[in-house]
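Moderator note: this is an archived Q&A kept for reference. The question asked for a predicted structure of one protein chain; the sequence and the answer are reproduced below.
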Amino acid sequence: VRGKGAHAAYNAVMLPYMSKVLKQPIPENKAANFAVMHKGDLYIYFDSIKINVNFVYEALKKYPDARYTFLLTHVPVLPGYNSDWLVPKVKERPEFLKALAKRKVIVLCAHIHITCSIRYEIEEGDIVQFVSYSLPSNLHREYSVIEGNIFDLPAKLDKPDKLAKIKPFFEPHLKDFVFHRYGGGFNVLNVSDEGVFIDLYTGEMKA
């Protein structure tokens, strides 16, 4: 939330709207943290500014029998681009990722203005993160896909490496990285007993 008066407007408009739609009270600290069961699946709304990992732990404990568990947040949990800005804080990260992996959580997030996906695998389980991007600054750039090791991405994009600091922690565990360059558009989440699938639409085509 940026700009003059943005926080006040968010508290006055967005939080009451979310509270009404999700049928839950606004948290006392006015963080956008909500946990909702919908058709047997758990959706955890996680405020990436007013971070409270205990809220996530409590939600996972409260709803142990969810078919699928989704974590919806703005700032990514796993790297998805040439940036090390992730949530939660470094000291909270190991236990947080273990808790998500045990439940095979699917993270849905944004922030980096790139559509991409990646998988994090550890002994406890795995996490899949999908980053959705809708509004490209230029509609005429050629769409392309980059796959492989995310830590090779800065060189492929001819950018200074901003991932070096988090590489030792993440590299052994990250797999299935897919980077949709200039892939702004919209995406459709399909959830059923058969699995969770996301259809990507960019420009005039289905990616």
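Archived answer notes: The longest helix spans residues 6-22.
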